[in-house]
Amino acid sequence: MKNKRILVTGGAGYIGSHTVVELYNAGYEPVIVDNLSNSSLDVLDGIRRITGKDPIFRQEDCADYVAMERVFNEFPEISLVIHFAAYKAVGESVQKPLDYYSNNLDSLVNVLRILSQKGGAVVFSSSCTVYGQPDDAYLPVSEDAPLKKAESPYGNTKQICEEIIADSVKAETGKLKAISLRYFNPVGAHPSAHIGELPRGVPQNLLPFITQTAAGLRGELKVFGDDYNTPDGSCIRDYIYVCDLAKAHVVAADRLLGNDDVRDDFEVFNLGTGEGLSVLEVIDMFQSANGVEVPFSIAPRRSGDVEKVWADPSKANQLLGWKADTPFEDVMKSAWKWEKKIRGI
Ligand code: NAD
Ligand code: WQD
Questions:
Q1: In 3D, which of 311, 337, 307, 338 has the Cα closest to residue 322?
Q2: Ligand 1 mean position to 131 CA, how many Å?
Q3: Measured between alpha carbons, how far is 226 from 233 in angstroms, rounded to an integer?
Q4: Protein residue with its CA nearest to atom 24 in ligand 2
Q5: Nearest 5°: CA angle at 293, between 288 and 295?
Q6: What is the DSSP letter of 181?
Q7: Which of 52, 115, 260, 313: CA 20 to 30 A from 305?
Q8: Which residue among 24, 100, 154, 228 is the active-site one?
């Protein structure tokens, strides 16, 4: 099973690059396809430094069917795709919904069309955003919780993509299999600091804003709301270390390629730690783990934010034999080490 080639779309991106490293560690040979719309060639150098391997890379657009056919013709042995390629900025998706629908849906449809013809499997990057704000009775949130109407076109693409996968797997029984991984909030960087998150412009996500503020690039962090119905009033999320998340893709690949007694051809797993942390707790833990200060002030709530959500990851723990177990202090250290590296501090 190992030394097997796996196609990794979006493999030059944040989660994709960490997954490529873990695939190499597990004995797979990833083939990266990325159009570099939100990443750069430097990432390949980071992967090379960590693994000592020269990554196979093709700069192609997954939303272009002919380009994807070209890749599969070059690597006909590939039967498994880990599909990260998508646009992911929630705010931008509200401004440019058609860009999000065409990129995120077309790229998935192309992958599925080719895999349905030749037979194969896909691991799909989904998101906890599909749950919206679960009712209290559904916290921590398991895969059985009802999905809520998406708050943004981005979130809607994840819901629609899961439906597209379900319909396609059903239509191609025995020929097409899939696993959808619903990530909670991925954070941190590889401990080597050779790869990490590279947000463009002003970061919208909490951790990059914290690290950039600690590095002096931003004057202060704005905490969006301290009047929520949570113990300290700030929002609660399940922050999962990107390397733990990356490893879950390896076990998902093992499962799809192996002969395990898997009952469903389409399975969905939550990937989180199972622990909720508030914004104020994250700031506090970042400061104490790294001995640096993060100036912050309380600001109004951010529109569209859910109050609290964290995962019940027991299905992934049991069926995948995977657990997010990196201590949060180490996660915070990795995020700061990466920020210092890219800023030359
Ligand atoms: P990222 O932007 O760092 O990585 C995505 C990669 O895909 C980028 O390298 C980009 O250049 C590439 N890409 C985009 N469209 C493409 C296309 N049409 N053809 C080829 N390459 C294309 O994002 P990420 O944080 O690594 O996210 C990876 C996946 O996980 C995405 O599908 C995202 O929606 C999903 N996800 C991310 C988070 C998060 O908070 N980071 C949470 C849940 C789900
Ligand atoms: C986390 C918390 C903010 C920035 C987003 C997407 C979601 C998923 C993960 C892809 C919230 C607070 C943030 C800041 C703050 N992505 N915050 N000041 O909103 O949980 O989820 O990324 O699928 O779809 O919506 O993550 O990192 O933006 O925010 O106070 O400057 O930090 O209000 O409570 P979020 P986030």
A1: 311
A2: 19
A3: 4
A4: 129
A5: 130
A6: E
A7: 313
A8: 154
